[in-house]
């Protein structure tokens, strides 16, 4: 009885109750027609329940997303294909796609009859305000009899993933980095210097080693010029993210960690487009030993899409990875939170003499509740170590902060 009740709809239970009352009334008062009508009302839901429970239909579900990787706020179109692999035509059924909450409301649609061996496709769109790897599916299905007296619910297994990448803001700076070659140099207009062994000169750029300054050429042109070997390695940049929960404030999309991820994505893509070989140093790349590898913009965005705050115990491994990369010289960008002056001092020590270090210190308190400290003392610590550092508040745009940072002088103020 309990199994039958779970299959019946509200209308089916109403039929059962009404039919039972009519049967009893017909028997008590001797009205045979009333009894027959009551038996009919009781029988219809039972027959419907049996048909719904015994009718077997097999379908194959496939999902295709276009595109497979989207940015925050961008629409993705999902195509659901239903293939009837049974020998009978499927009944009309109601389908509901189960989605991660970040993708919005669950789409619901009525699917018509599908003949054996045929395929029916349905499209829907999703949009996420949160980056990450989100799940599509499984699909919930409800089959109902034509009278609406009984239904059967089932879950069709099978899921797909949709990768939502962090937003990337276009950045600019007063001194644009150019496509680089050389750990200290970059690809520029190379001028041969006869009499020197495979050496050329070019203009000084941020991040160049001061030991490579070519003083005769500097005196002749009036601009700082540096020596560059004829076959140098590619110009390098290191982008470091602070993943400590104690160094960040706020929750969800408005947290300082999300701001840091967006900033790291924007800076890394900007530097890649400018010709830098970019190393991303974060908890995820350190764990997978990818911090030492140069990464393409797509690879960087894929890593940042799933980046999460990590326990403070892992900060030592991240700093060691950053130290190993920074010791070879190159451009440094650190996005850190203000918690622990000793950690900030270790970050400050990453910059090598003659190279450029840019630091974005998140004012975590402006983002929400946090254990973090005031940002300004940490900014001062980095500036004293030769970094260009600024404090970042919640309402500030990544492009604006980058423009201010790249326009600042070493040790200057905003």
Automatic annotation (TrEMBL):
Name the keywords, alphabetized: Membrane, Transmembrane, Transmembrane helix
Asked if the keyword Transmembrane helix belongs to this entry, the reply reads yes
Q: Which domain of life is it from?
A: Bacteria
Q: Where is the DUF58 domain?
A: 201-285
Question: PANTHER family of this UniProt entry?
Answer: SLR1927 PROTEIN (PTHR34351:SF1), SLR1927 PROTEIN-RELATED (PTHR34351)
What parts of the sequence cross the membrane?
Answer: 12-31, 37-54
Q: What is this protein called?
A: DUF58 domain-containing protein
User: Species name for this entry?
Assistant: Terrabacter ginsenosidimutans
